[in-house]
Design goal:
Structural class: alpha+beta
Distance between the termini: 29 Å
Helix content: 10-25%
């Protein structure tokens, strides 16, 4: 789903963000990873926008945090994002690319630097603090300890989630949409001819499929009605 073309699920997400923009917590979501022991690990993170020209989600984190080792062990993660005003939930599963200070790709390091400067000075200060998860009696760093014009510190890490599967649920309309990126899918021609508007109407059949070419990939969208 990492094309410059805007994926249908991204359009839904942007609309949800706009509708809930008056709520500060609307930019918070849960990021679940898998630990080295095979057990799930979850935490709340902040949405830092989409990588320019793509459908990839950006997340800032501390390279000393436990999630880094978990991503190294298993690069797959899932986002769960609920919008309280509109009763919408997005579950976004995909592969995570980690960009830290040791990365040798100049383009990725440039992305990391851009993400660093996009954050407030207050948010940058946390990367000067003690290692996350370890008790410390040290005082929190002050604004004077950070040069606002300096580039990212070693502890700053940019995570980029490349969505492979997105599940959308609207509890007000009892509508559920599922988006999956695949290399190739066999879909009847008569279904291929249907457009997104037609597919979102309430139908009696349990599911409909729609294939949309995006670059070298194909997007398969499964639409179904579900009542709770």
């Amino acid at each position: 789903m990492s094309s410059s073309a805007t994926a249908p699920w991204k359009q839904l997400l942007l609309k949800s963000l706009s509708s809930n923009s008056h709520l500060k917590h609307s930019t918070y979501f849960q990021l679940a990873t898998v630990g080295s022991n095979g057990r799930p690990s979850n935490r709340t993170v902040v949405f830092r926008g989409f990588q320019e020209g793509t459908n990839k989600i950006q997340i800032n984190t501390d390279s000393r945090s436990r999630k880094i080792e978990e991503v190294k062990h298993c690069p797959f993660a899932e986002v769960c994002w609920y919008f309280t005003e509109t009763w919408e939930q997005f579950r976004i599963h995909g592969r995570v690319d980690m960009i830290d200070a040791s990365n040798s790709d100049p383009d990725k390091l440039q992305q990391r630097e851009a993400a660093w400067f996009a954050g407030s000075v207050r948010s940058r200060l946390q990367y000067l603090g003690p290692t996350p998860g370890i008790p410390s009696l040290d005082e929190q760093p002050s604004h004077d300890s950070l040069d606002p014009s300096a580039g990212p510190v070693d502890a700053f890490c940019l995570l980029i989630l490349d969505p492979e599967q997105v599940d959308y649920l609207n509890l007000k309309s009892n509508e559920r949409l599922s988006f999956t990126a695949g290399q190739s899918v066999n879909v009847p021609d008569e279904i291929n001819q249907l457009n997104l508007k037609h597919m979102r109407t309430k139908v009696n059949s349990s599911h409909l499929l729609w294939r949309h070419n995006i670059g070298s990939k194909q997007l398969m969208i499964c639409f179904g009605m579900r009542h709770f």
